[in-house]
Design a protein that fits this description.
Chain B: One of its GO terms (cellular component) is plasma membrane. Chain B: It is a multi-pass membrane protein. The structure holds 2 protein chains of 2 kinds. Chain A has 9 helices and no strands. In chain A, about 75% of the residues lie in helices and about 0% in strands. Chain B has helices at about 1-10, 25-30, 35-55, 65-90, 90-95, 110-120, 125-155, 170-200, and strands spanning about 155, 160. A two-stranded antiparallel sheet of chain B has the order 1-2. In chain B, strand 1 (about 155) and strand 2 (about 160) form a beta hairpin. Classes of the chains: A mainly alpha, B mainly alpha.
């Protein structure tokens, strides 16, 4: 039961972008077109879930050897090498997907959503299954927010905005309204 | 004179938050009050300055192909140090900033400065560059934190200003909307300045 609660609360209540403020850079950066936003959402969900699984074992190893203070360094190296691995793997096996994701793949390394996810799992002391589902939910939540936001921004290009609001300013205000809408989910799931 | 410019350019002209739109996650997340913004800004400045110095020192011996992982390890080591120091000496602040202290590692500003400046320039210039950009970042965080604290809680740095309290300002939507309005204001000032320059 706790697994389902974690999964759904990660998508709606504690949405990574709109409530926890993680992964804002790609959220603002790659949300200009719906297609790229979808690709980015899928890539992040995948990397997030697998990194959470790998890091769970490493975290246990660090705790048992008393080297917890190395957590940040170890996790970021795991994420960086895993992203590199995914990049090489995709290049060989499915060049189409590799082309479509392009520059966003290497950029996932510096996406704070991934490191945040892994550290959060470690802080919340989740067991393996919970950690993986928590990561999957968070990734899907990120993808959902990104896709909705990209949809709104595509429409917004058609409107005539006052000069100072063009670009970042209106994007941030839109994100604020979206976050307001997601606050409606608050209190639905209690952990 | 040119040295001084390395220091000041990051504060206004190349302000990381309002002009370059970098490092958004901590900017939005920790600015519920001015003091939190200040703490986060100073922690980031410390990491940025030290990592810039070290990266500038080792820039000639690092092979080009694996420079990014090496930079990340350097940055992560300094972040771990700051994390432990804050845990020891500023426990309350450490607790409020929480997850966002280890996340300084993936702050794009730091990696950005390492890659675009420190790996190409001398030690002193890199240090000043790190300090300037860091202070620019701190300034933006304090500004956003003050505005949110003022409207959300009626105080600035804990001193009472008025009774007005808009609860929304402290919540996540408030962060986005306030930053959006501030960034529109900065763009507006930029446009007016340009127009005045053209008129002259």
């Amino acid at each position: 039961m706790k697994v389902f609660l974690l999964f759904f609360s990660a998508i709606f209540v504690n949405n990574f972008v709109l409530a926890r403020f993680l992964g804002i850079c790609p959220f603002l950066g790659v949300s200009k077109r719906l297609e790229t936003a979808t690709g980015m959402g899928i890539a992040v969900t995948f990397v997030m879930t697998v990194s959470a699984a790998i890091s769970w074992f490493l975290d246990k190893l660090l705790i048992s050897t008393g080297l917890e203070f190395l957590r940040t360094i170890v996790f970021i190296l795991v994420i960086a090498s895993f992203v590199q691995f995914v990049e090489l793997f995709l290049k060989k096996t499915s060049p189409d997907l590799y082309e479509a994701l392009g520059i966003f793949l290497p950029l996932i390394t510096t996406n704070c959503a991934i490191l945040g996810m892994v550290l959060l799992n470690s802080l919340m002391k989740l067991n393996f299954v919970e950690a993986v589902f928590h990561a999957l939910g968070s990734g899907l939540g990120f993808a959902l927010a990104l896709v909705i936001f990209a949809g709104i921004r595509e429409k917004m290009d058609l409107y005539d905005l006052p000069e100072p609001f063009k670009g970042t300013a209106i994007a941030l205000i839109t994100a604020g309204l979206l976050s307001l809408a997601f606050m409606g989910f608050q209190g639905m799931v209690k952990l | 004179m040119s040295r001084l410019r390395e220091l000041t350019k990051g504060i206004i002209k190349e302000n990381p938050t309002y002009v370059q739109v970098l490092g958004m996650c901590p900017t939005l997340a920790v600015t519920t009050s001015a003091i939190n913004g200040l703490g986060m800004g100073l922690a980031t400045t410390a990491v940025l300055t030290m990592s810039n110095v070290v990266i500038s020192l080792i820039r000639k011996i690092v092979p080009d192909k694996i420079r990014i992982p090496i930079f990340i390890v350097v940055i992560a080591s300094f972040v771990t140090m700051i994390d432990l120091l804050m845990h020891g000496f500023a426990y309350d602040l450490w607790k409020t900033l929480g997850l966002f202290i280890p996340l300084i590692v993936v702050n794009c500003i730091i990696m950005g400065r390492a890659e675009s400046f420190a790996s190409k320039h001398g030690v002193l210039d890199s240090m000043l560059d790190g300090l300037g950009v860091g202070l620019g970042f701190t300034g933006s965080l304090v500004l956003l934190g003050s505005v949110r604290e003022l409207f959300g809680n009626g105080t600035i740095f804990g001193y009472k200003v008025w009774e007005l309290k808009i609860f929304l300002e402290i919540l996540p939507p408030g962060a986005y909307i306030t930053l959006g309005l501030l960034s529109a204001l900065f763009t507006y000032i930029g446009i007016r300045r340009k127009k005045r320059g053209e008129a002259k």
